C-alpha cells in the first residue's frame, strides 16, 4: 500500500517536462521510499522480513552481476585466443538487446499468469514514462562512437587504464545527480577502488599513458562522464517508479537499445552485413558471449533497481580481479606483484565502503 | 606534579626483573599518563595548554623526522651519483652514534644550567633502568648482519620491496607488545600504507620478487620482525619512564649503539681501517650524511617519546614519497604511474589513520 501511494504521488509529478526536475524529484521520492521502508520495518515482524528480503535480493543480483561480468571477460579472452573477431560487433550488440527484450517479455508473461495484469506490470506506457528511456542508449551510442577517435591519442592498454576514470565519474555524478551522500570513509574507499583497479592492471607499458596529450585526456574524461552519466541516469529512470515492475522498465530500455544499435549497424557495418550476411563469422563462442552479455545487462538493471551505481562499480571491479585469478587456472596467466597490491587495495576499499556507511 | 607521582610509581616496579613484565607494566603506565593528562585537561586553562604543547611537540618532531629522512635519501642518491662509497660504512655508523651521544650531552648541559640537576635529568642511572638499553642496538646489529645473507636469495631492488614488510611487522608488534589498540579503520589504513609504499616503488623488475625462494621469504620476514621489534622495544624503553629526560635516555641508548658499532668495525672492516686509516675515503657528502643520520636518529627517539612507532612509520613513508618528488627537480627523475597511484593510496591511508582514531 505504501508503494502504491508513492506511485500515485509520482504520477502527479509527470506534468514536469524538465528532466533535471525529474531527477530532482527522484531524490525526494527515494527519501520517501527509504522512510516508508523504515516505517514498514518499525511496524514489527513483517517489516523485518521485508528488510531481509530486500537485502537478500540486493545480494543475489550483486553476486549475479559479479559472476556474469567475470565470465564475460573470460569469454573475451577465450574468443581472442580462438582467433580474431570475424563477426560484426554491431550485429552482436543488436542481438544482445533483442535477447534482453525477449527475456524481459518472458519474465513478464510469467508474472501476468501468476499475479494478473496490474498498473505496475502492464506493458503499455505513457509518453511521460517513456520519454527519458532513449537517453541512456543515446549516451552509450555517443560514447562508443567517441571510442573510435580516442585511439588516435591513446593506445589500447592506455585506454584500459584511463577507463578507470569511470569509477570516479560515477561517484561524482551519483553524488551530484542522484543527490545521494557517501560518507568520507566511503569516498576514501572509492578513490582507493580507482587506484586499486588501475594498480592491478599495471604492466611495463603503463607509463606511456602519462604521455597522453591534452586532447586525449579531454576525450578520456568526456567518455568517463558519458559512461558515468548513462549509468546514473539509468538508475534515476528505474528508481523514479519504485513500484513499477523492473521487467517493464527493462523492456522499454532495451527497445531503445535495439533501435540505437540498428542505427549503429547501418552506420558502421552496412556493407559487411549486406555482402556477407547478418550472421557472418558467428561461432559457438560468439553465441555464448551474446547470451552472457544479455544476462549481464539484465543483472546491471536489477542492481540499479535494488542497489545502486556504487554497488555496480564495486561489483564489476571485483569481477575484474576474479577474472584474473580464474585466468591463472584456465589460461596459465601469471599474476604480477602489481595485481596482488591492487587486489589488496580493492579489498580494503570494499571493507571501507561497508564500514563507512552513514548511520 | 602528576608526572612526578607517576615516576615514583614507576620506581616501585623496578623490582621486577622480567622484561616482559616491564613491558606489561608499561601498558598500565601509559594508561595512567593518559588519564592524568585528561585529568589535567579537565582542570581548566592550564590543562588545555598542556594538551596543546603536547600536540605541538608531537607535530614538530614528526615534521623534523619527515624532512630529515627525506633529505637522508636525497643525500644517498647524491653520494651515489658522486661515485661509489669509498669509506667503510661501519666507521660512519660509529661516528653517527658518537655524534648523537655528544648532542644529547650538549642538550643536557644546557638543561642542567637552566633547571639544575634533578632525578629526571641526572645522567647517573641504575642497573634496572639501563639493563634493557643494549637490546635495540643488539637487534639492529643482528638485523644488519642478516642483511649480508639475504642478498644470496633476493636482489637489491627486491630487498627494497620486501622491506615494506617492516610496516606490517611494526603494526603487529605495536599491538602485541605495547598492547595499544588501533581501530579497524586504522588497521585498514596501515595495510594500505604498506601497499601504497610498495606500489610507489614498482618498476619493470619488481615481479622478480615473487620468485623469491622460501628461505628468502623467511629471512625477509625475520628481518622485518627484528626491525619492528627493535622499534617497538625502543618505544617501550623510552615511554616506561615518561618523566625521565629524553636526552638521558638517548645518551644511554647511543652509548650502547657506539659499543655495538665498534664491534661491527672489528668484525667487518678491521683490515681496511688498520691499513688505510679510520677516516679513509671520507668526503664532504660523507660528513653531511653522518650529520643527517645523527639528527634523524635523535628525531626518531623524540617521535618514540612524544608520539609512537605508528607515527614514525607514517612519517618515514611520507618522507619516501617527498624524496621522489624532490628528486624530480634535483635529479630529473621521472615519476611513474605506479608512483602516483602509490602516493594516492598512502595519502588516503594517512587520512584514514587520523579519521579512524578510537574515541
TrEMBL record, chains A, B:
GO biological process: transmembrane transport
An annotated Gene Ontology molecular function: pyrimidine nucleotide-sugar transmembrane transporter activity
Membrane topology: Multi-pass membrane protein
Cell location: Membrane
Family: Belongs to the nucleotide-sugar transporter family. CMP-Sialate:CMP antiporter (TC 2.A.7.12) subfamily.
Protein name: BnaA08g15010D protein
Organism classification: Eukaryota, Viridiplantae, Streptophyta, Embryophyta, Tracheophyta
A GO cellular component annotation in the UniProt record: Golgi membrane
Pfam family, one: Nuc_sug_transp
Keyword terms, alphabetized: Membrane, Transmembrane, Transmembrane helix
TM stretches of this protein: 59-78, 214-238, 250-267, 279-301, 313-331
